[in-house]
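Final report, results section. Input specification for complex C-07:
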Amino acid sequence: MKKNLLKLLVIFFVLIQFDSISEEKNYHKELIADWSRIFPDQNRNAGGPMFFKYIIDKEITYKDFKEFNKLYCAVSGSLIDPNAEPDFIYANESKSGEKICGDYYKCCIPCSCDIMKYSEVEKMKHKFLDGLKEFYVFTIRNPCNKKDFPNRVNKNYFCDGEKINDDQVYSLNDKLVIGLLHEGRSCKKNDIDFVNSHQVTGRFCEFRNNTPLENLKTGMGDIFIKLAR
Amino acid sequence: MKTKLSNFFKKIIFLSVLIIPNIVNADFFKDITAKIADNPKRLSYGISVADIDQNGKYEFIVTGFGYPNLALSYENGKLINIANQNIFSDESRKTIGVAACDVDRDGYEEIYFLNTDTYSGTKKYSDRLIDLVGSKFLDMFEIKKNKEDLNLTAGRSVACVDRKGDGKYGIYVSNYGGPTRFYEIENKKIKDKSVNLNLDKVTGGRAVVSGHILTDRSDIFAANERGANFLLKNNNGVFEDLAFNYRVDDVIQNGRGTALSDILYRGRLDIISGNWQGYHRAYVLKDNQFKDIGNSKFDKPSRIRTIISADFDNDGYDEVFMNNIAEPNKLFKIRENGKFEEIKLETGLEADGYGTGAAVADIDNDGILELLVSRGESKEQPLTLYKAKIDKQTKYLRIKPINKFGAPARGATVTLISNQRKHSKTIDSGSGYLCQMEPVAHYGIRKNEKDFKVEVKWTNGSKDIIKIDSLNQTIIVKQK
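Structure output:
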């Protein structure tokens, strides 16, 4: 009895010691520290692709990859508060046109509408420190040959002439990867109903997505839309 | 049975002792504010420690924003304001930053008062550079020949930089919304040399420190707001910004209090930099880049103002005092391997304090540092004064390097070498936020520590080694 009590106490004390010396990785702090490396000219407008490339190039585990990808907005390029809650959304898969549901971490609600309307998802595989993993990413069509490429976005980040610049951003089947769809999976009917009836992804997005481009003032305004449409 | 039970309890006691270092809760400071003779509510900002009356004793110089600048001298057990000349007190000019150093090479320090009557950009009143001539203070900027280069931009902190290592100090003025200034006396005239020295950048300047950060000369680290920090490497007296290369640019954080500290007790100065409601950094140089090793308790965002690294309790480990505004202050002890251990404050917490600056000095000359905290900004508050609650038996060693002109060698580095550590401290050129500490390297002595010697690296990079025969003294080391 006493032996067991002592064992328990030893485990308890060891855990206390371990807790005091172990440190949770601070993903947000790391992104802030490396901001000037992610955005050398400090222009983060529509900078999701820069974040994604920076993260995928790291030697990290799949868990780290997912955590990092919760901290920026794929539409605006803004950093997101570490405690932010995602919106449950859907986007069409490029090849099949099937609706894929999952969590999207956004800086503000209009971005959820923009990503649903103007991006597509693709399945991607990548080898992390803990093995090969498969997941869905948000993509937009190659914007580099656009005549109306938005001037508030740094084209040099994304493009090498009319091609996507794979040294600075990540492309998949000539599409620009802008972020991660968390916990992506084929939508079920009730998922779609949930999204369509939600006050943001349903009602607000219907209003936003029917607003003429020149009248869009919230979120990224028309910057991302011009890049992605 | 009795023996078994006794062994059991012994084991419990042993395990409890193991966890005690993680719970440091005894009250660390005692409040000795009553030692300040006349302490009305006021708006105070930066504090410097210098000898204003050239009597060999240091005073706390406390700036006032629409209130008089003070010079608090320790006399008969009290801190008494001895500044009674208008040019020094200067109630009308709204002083916030202060630093002292010997700019004219007469062996005595002049005092730079940074005045700011606007948040950013052009201001109405220029700064003052106070010199004591005979028994009168005069503002060197009021002399006609010195009026060409007045600083008419809002600013924050100032630091003294002996950029050539020849004892000729210049003053780095961290301006806000206008170019940085660097004042030196050239041909008996005060000149702004910032353009020639690559320092005239426009930013939201907040804090500045100078010392042996990268080279054997005085380098500069400037913590900025709404823009990248500067890490200015001294290349033969001209500066090159390498903040990006060394990963201390921290471009989307808003810099505040900054201090040089030997975080790893390895005989070099690293950088502690607080960010306003952002992550506080403990930058340690490794493989030509600074790595932030602050743990989650240390880096937790706060409304930070001044940061001080000093050994308050004379145990041989430095503490980091974080002075927050309208938010409780914090204190950490830096253990071996850069582990920051939080010391829960009761006295000195100042949860309702509007902290604007702080400085340390052994003002009463008893071998234990005093911490003076200034407060104000949006609410008039009196000054507060603290001292670690410790046994008088603790040992200490204080090293006061004097340069070849007889002035405090601000920017020199002192390293205590013993059987237990190699511990560097800067002779403060300006640090914290708006502040400057006493120009003395103060070391508490560890348990069982022995075989002491001290190395002084001067601002020109040359070194002197001093053998230490006895403790509990202040040793004045003169540059040859």
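The beta strands of chain A are 87-93, 99-104, 120-128, 131-141, 159-160, 163-164, 171-172, 175-186. The radius of gyration of chain A is 20 Å. This concludes the modelling results for the funded period.
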